[in-house]
Amino acid sequence: MKPFWKHAPEIAARLAAGRLLVTLDFDGTLAALAETPGQASLRPEFKAALRALAARPGVSVFILSGRALPNVRRLVGLRRLYYGGNHGMEIQGPGLAWRDAGAARARLRLAAAAADLRERFPEGTGILVEYKTFSVSVHYRALKPAYRAGFFARMRALAAAAETGLSWSRGHKVFELRPAGAPHKGDAVLRLGRKLAAAAALAVGDDLTDEDMFAALAARGVTVRVGRKARSAAEYFLPAQADVLSLLRFATAAREGGGT
């Protein structure tokens, strides 16, 4: 991985012309990681920077999150943007409303799984089970030490015995249950890029699930990981989440000429 700011002039040239799709994760990228999903928020200066970038001619901004789509739309609160929820199983934006048919069919099984998980991991353990319509997240950022060994033993057993058609994956302090074969972030960024006929792409994220979009855009877009990590598919890295604000302003300045 290469340091983003050291290569800023060449990156600016790559972003300057043609229709540009800018894809950003939310938690850990646009917003600092919080102990629970409900505590996360978008700082006003980040919102202003997103608004300014989306206003540039030829630029489309795509917020692509593991959160449910209505949730991430509410947290960002900007109309002109595109939004992807459940890692790309659902996408909405100007002239577009799409959801994966297979994920939609799995809703009842996922709801039942969420109810079962809440019984297994009751309040007081520090574990939060979140049902997101097309997936279920088991957050353990606040896991109490006394429950740690039992929690991971149960998760290993659940992963080994996953119901046919559902599969487990991992992220930052979270396990996620999704429909097997459902679209991931790489699929989503390519889908929207094709619809918009984007000639250039910038993608920024910090989590394991963001590696899918980094891999999908390899050799065809500017991919940036928040935090350096060995064996990441991202081409560049930023030192910290706070640097994303400077990146948004940098991308806006790179489009000063208004390429189309």
Itemize the secondary structure elements and their pairings.
Layout: E1 2-3, H1 8-15, E2 20-24, H2 44-54, E3 59-64, H3 69-76, E4 82-85, E5 90-93, E6 96-99, H4 101-105, H5 107-120, E7 128-131, E8 136-139, H6 148-160, E9 166-171, E10 174-179, H7 185-196, E11 200-205, H8 211-216, E12 222-226, E13 236-238, H9 243-254
Parallel strand pairs: 1-13, 2-3, 2-11, 3-4, 11-12, 12-13
Antiparallel strand pairs: 4-5, 5-6, 7-8, 8-10, 9-10
Helix pairs in contact: 2-9
Please tell me about this protein's structure.
It is built from 9 helices and 13 strands. The chain is α/β, with parallel strands linked by helices. The longest helix is centred in the middle third of the chain and has 14 residues, at 107-120. The protein has helices spanning 8-15, 44-54, 69-76, 101-105, 107-120, 148-160, 185-196, 211-216, 243-254; strands at 2-3, 20-24, 59-64, 82-85, 90-93, 96-99, 128-131, 136-139, 166-171, 174-179, 200-205, 222-226, 236-238. Helix content is 34%, strand content 23%.
Output the keywords.
260 residues, alpha/beta, Rossmann fold, Alpha-Beta Plaits, 2 domains, 9-stranded mixed beta sheet, 4-stranded antiparallel beta sheet, 13 strands, 34% helix, globular
Q: Summarize the helix and strand pattern as letters.
A: EHEHEHEEEHHEEHEEHEHEEH
Mean pLDDT, all residues:
95
List low-pLDDT spans: none
Q: Can you list the strand order of the major beta sheet? A: 1-13-12-11-2-3-4-5-6
Strand pairing plus helix content: what structural class? alpha/beta
Describe the biggest sheet? 9 strands, mixed
- Number of strand segments: 13
Integer tally of domains: 2
Superfamily (CATH H level) name of the largest domain: HAD superfamily/HAD-like
The CATH topology of the largest domain turns out to be Rossmann fold
Distance between the termini: 29 Å
CATH class term of the largest domain: Alpha Beta
What form results from the Cα inertia axes? globular
Number of helices: 9
Report the sheet-strand fraction. Answer: 15-25%
Helicity level, as a percent range?
25-40%
Radius of gyration: 18 Å
CATH architecture of the largest domain: 3-Layer(aba) Sandwich
